[in-house]
Amino acid sequence: MSEQRWVRLSTEEPTSTVCVLGTEMSLDVCGAAPSGATVFDVWGTSGVNLYIIHNGEVLKIPSCVPKWPLDCKVEVVVTMDQPSAEVNEDKVRISYYKDNGRTPMAKALLHLTCVEISLDADTNRSGTVQRRAKNKKNWTWGPEGKGAILLVNCDRDEPQDEMDNEDKKLQSFVDRRDMSLMILTTRGPEDIFEDHQLVLHVSASDADKVGVFHAQGKRKKLSQHKHVLGHGKSSYVVEPSCDEEEHHFYVEGLAFPDIGFSGLVTFHATLLEATAKALPEAPIFNDTVVFRVAPWIMTPNTLQPITVYVCSIKGNADFVVEISKLSKKAGCRLIICPEAENRGDRWIQDEMEIGYTQAPHKSFPVVFDSPRNRDLDGFPYKAVLGPDFGYVTRKAEGKGNSVSTLDSFGNLEVSPPVTVRGKEYPLGRVIIGSALPMPHGDKMVKVVRDFLYAQEVQSPIELYSAWLLVGHVDEFMCFVPASDRKGFRLLLASPSRCYKLLKEKEQEGYGDAMMFDGLGKDDKEISITTILADKSLRSINEYYQKCIDWNRDLLKEELELEEEDIIDIPQLFTRSSYSPSKAVAYFPDIVNMLVLGKYLGIPKPFGPIIHEQCCLEEEVRRLLEPLGLSCTFIDDYETYHKDLGEVHCGTNVRRKAFSFKWWNMTP
């Protein structure tokens, strides 16, 4: 018995009230006592449980004690075990006496009607509603945690212009499966509600975070689902009926967690009792259930790929063919965005990030549309959003939300699962690029950063990427799967490793071997010896190496990595002709690769050819193939590299969701 209510009595006329199943009523015995009374006794009908609490002891009535002292330390508690068949069916009588008198000085009579009112949801996270569960008011994390979960209904199950949660109409029973069931049980005599109201309500601040449909009628046809809460509505009067003891409500999320919204939404079912005229009803009972809106979750390269996306543009037909072959090897579906839809914008990684959302009863992918808003802008909403495929975006508006290249989603990655100083991150950690921690350094726009931090389950790490012209983390790092150690390796672009490799080749007698050999552009070719002799190039790459090392140390700290978990991939950078203080890849950026399980689509670096083999490709194979990875080098020079991007920038992947359930973690 979790709820207790104080009930005043009267010796002048009977008092009538409602007792809700599973609650306690404490009777104000002293307040109704006539002057001169010193003791009392208590009696009740068979449907009532009576208890006396005296000196810390609880005694059930009847007991061996005939009368009790009128003392504020003596408490009379009433409970009932089943709903009443009629109004005022049960009674409690308090008789007042003076000292040892046998005849009562006065009597207080309480008429009772027991009703059952219970607001229930899937608080055990089993996929079914738990009835009359305890601790519904709290939401707790972990495998032993309790609390209901709801999905943001952000997909589009029917061919229409709006997402499912943007209207106030239930479009289909398929749409209803995206919602969480909440059941309001009301049992008791129907006449009791002539003087009482039952109200389902949320706080005004939550009224734009959830939507609720009431399934009415015995058959609960689609047309009988009434929109009752959300989109500005914060309360709904439920009309109990003897023909319908259970009221089914279907709850949808309207918003993901974000700044100012923790994701927790509290529903109340409140019983109101009529009072004197011109006065508002008085609340006499409240049942509460708390939901948490499921977060948006990113998927790392170590998860199984399902679908690959690529754009078809003028001049990249060969690239698309290579991506198609690699996708087929990996068992992935390939979706090609035609030029009519991309309008020449090939950077599909920058446009969107595909994650997912999950509740015990349902899970579906959700595309996060970046605020970059270039020619691919409409693609995620028009072509990716659909049945069981959700959509979310954040508009960069107002102060602190001026869009830059840092806001493209090549600058948004996620690590595989890690444990850091004993704290588990079973869904990995989000990684974004920013400037150094200085007052006026560039950062990803506030609305996106706020959103990522608010999801809670993939605690973000901010790296230093603003040393690059484009400024994306995928230009200098990548995760690949591995069967040993932590289950992955971190690949880092490494100018020092590249210089070491080139020096080794020169010492072996291959100083005349040409970089960009095989590209078919003689003016681009440059020998190993010439590269090594370029003091300016070496000096600037020493600086770039320091920038990468800063991130290396940060990732080692924040992901608890050891050197054995990191592989240095040979790579040089050079000053950008657009902004000499910023870096671009000197040759196609190897770590900017497409990872499809063990199959890697790697930018072809066009390194020096030694023994009919590109020495950069040979080195990358030597480093990665012992992990069971398959390296395919893809020529992206003309259509991607020259426009400051590579294979990863020009592709996107939907991956399988984690088997781990996010609610079982502790953020």
UniProtKB/TrEMBL annotation:
Active site: 350, 472, 474, 649
Pfam families hit by this protein: PAD (PF03068), PAD_M (PF08527), PAD_N (PF08526)
GO CC terms of this entry: cytoplasm; nucleus
The keyword Methyltransferase is annotated on this UniProt entry: no
Job description of the protein: Catalyzes the deimination of arginine residues of proteins.
GO molecular function term, any single one: calcium ion binding
Residue ranges of domain Protein-arginine deiminase (PAD) N-terminal in the record: 1-113
Similarity comment: family membership: Belongs to the protein arginine deiminase family.
Keyword annotations from UniProtKB, A to Z: Calcium, Cytoplasm, Hydrolase
Broad EC category: hydrolase
Location in or out of the cell: Cytoplasm
EC number, as in UniProt: 3.5.3.15
Catalytic function, reaction form: L-arginyl-[protein] + H2O = L-citrullyl-[protein] + NH4(+)
Keyword Repeat: no
Naturally occurring in which organism (per UniProt): Podarcis lilfordi
Name this protein carries in UniProt: Protein-arginine deiminase
Residues in Protein-arginine deiminase C-terminal domain copies: 284-664
Gene3D superfamilies (alphabetical): L-arginine/glycine Amidinotransferase, Chain A, Protein-arginine deiminase, central domain, Protein-arginine deiminase, N-terminal domain
The protein's required cofactors: Ca(2+)
Residue ranges of domain Protein-arginine deiminase (PAD) central in the record: 115-273
